[in-house]
Each structure stands twice: as structure tokens, then as C-alpha cells.
Amino acid sequence: MARYAYVNGRYVDHRDASVHIEDRGYQLADGVYEVVGVREGRLIDETPHIDRLDRSLRELRIDWPVARPALGFILRELMRRNRLRDGLIYMQVTRGVARRDHAFPTTPVKPALVLTTKNTRHLGADPGPGVAVKSQPDIRWERCDIKTIALLPNVLAKQAARESGAYEAWLIDGKGCITEGASTNAWIVTPDNELVTRQTDNGILAGITRGTLKRIANDLQLKFVERPFTLAEAKKAKEAFITSATSFVTPVVKIDGDKVGDGKVGPTARRLREEYVRFASEGEAVT
Q1: pLDDT per position as a tens digit, 46-99
Q2: Total-model pTM
Q3: How far apart are CA 110 and CA 62, in angstroms?
């Protein structure tokens, strides 16, 4: 079956999809992106993802490439063409094509819009055996709240984690606190059964899955707090887990080779995973 991408107004064969060599995203990482999960033909948290895209564009002073309703149509048409049932849709907007210069173009250029899809396995309520994470210094810029395509520090951290046998990197700031993962948000459950994740500020991305899980935690009347927590505290936690559009809720059972709790998936992470999967399966399927 052919695989399609959307590139600046056209649905094209994925193998032929390309952007101009002077696209500012390609040359200067001058752009933003979003990743929306798809489960059983349903877009997960579509509105919050598009809201965050809008915020990222405003922060970088990039215009919308199409009207917001048109983007919704493009998402659904690409899903239909690619027969996407379980997977991801990647959306990227850059400032557009212009002669290379660090400053914004002096003449108007149209922002560039690219979308691709990816099939993934059907994620169930069972979280599996859990994963390991590796701590790495957080060397990113100070506006991590903007979902930009400038991800080289994240790439290096993720690669270091993978080379150590870990699934994810947890980034550590100058105070010894965990900010977030290279591509996920970080959570712990303390010995006092307090569910903790860092507060949203310029140091982390306000994850959409993170936001949904906050609501689920409140519905379950869990003792929840947003605050910084150190690597040392995480290693003494009863449980730990990561969240993202691609990971859902994935338990962390090892940090830097040390067991978290008893080294097994804990009840809080398991319950939150079950509830998130239930949430993700609700709503109207795209046909």
C-alpha cells in the first residue's frame, strides 16, 4: 500500500516528499512541531495538541500556514489515505523558504507545513515489565516550553541512554533536579504515596499526555503535587514512570542501573496506564 505525506498543500508519495533546500527549518531549525497519537482510528487529545501548536507558533512569531479548521481536515485526510488505525501523526511548521540569514526574512514568506504518519503497535493496558532510564545533564536552551524542531541536545541524551542499554534519558538541571525526559515527562511516587511531577515552566514542555494524566489523577483522588524533585529522590521513590503521546504511561523500574522500589511495575503506574488507555479509546473514530 502506498504511504502518503502532506507537503505544502499536496498529498504526495512518502518516498517523493521533499522541502526546499533553503527552508528555514532545514537550515536553521526555525520551526515547531506536534505529534498526535492515533488509537483505533481516533485522534488522541487533538484540541490540546493544536492549542499547543498555536502557542508555539505565537512564541516564535510564525503565522499559521493554513486555517485551523483546514488543518483538522488535512489530519483526517492523511489518516484516511494511509489507513492509519494505531500510530502517530507528525506535524511540522517552519517559517518558510528564504535566503539564508539568521534574522527573520525582510519580505513576507509563507510558512511551510509538512505532515507524515507512522504506524505503531496497538498499545494496551498492560504496561509490560517497565523500562530503564539514564540520567544526563540538561544542556538545552531556556525555552523548553516551546516545542521547536531544534532537538540536538535531546538527540544526544537519548543516544547516550540507548548506548547504556536504557530506554530514555532523564535530564538533570544545575540543581540536581530532574526536568523531564529527552522525549517524555518524568513522574515519581514518593514513599508517602505522593504523585509528583515537575511544575510547568520554561524548563519543560507542558506535555499533553501529562495534562490528561493530571485530570485522571485528580479523578482518582490521588495525592498529587507539581514540584521539582532530585535524582536522589527519584532513586528512593516507590515508583516512577514517563508519559508522552508515544509512550502513554510507561513505568520506570531502573534509574542509572539502580532499582526503583522493588524493581517491578507498581500499582499507581499500572492503574494510571489502564485509565489513560480507557481515555484514549473514547471518542469518534475517523473514517
Answers
A1: 999 999 999 999 999 999 999 999 999 999 999 999 999 999 999 999 999 999
A2: 0.95
A3: 9
Concatenating the DSSP letter of every residue in 141-191 gives -S-TTS-BS--HHHHHHHHHHHHTT-SEEEEE-TTSBEEEESSSEEEEE-T
In the chain, which residues have pLDDT < 70? Answer: 1, 283-287
Backbone dihedral angles phi then psi of residue 254, each to the nearest 5 degrees: -145, 140
Q: What pLDDT, on a 0 to 100 scale, did the predictor assign at position 282?
A: 85
Length of the chain measured in residues: 287
Residue 10 Rama label (left phi>0; alpha psi -120 to 50; beta): beta
d(CA 161, CA 171): 11
- The residues carrying an active-site annotation are 147
Contact predicate 270/261, CB 8 Å: no
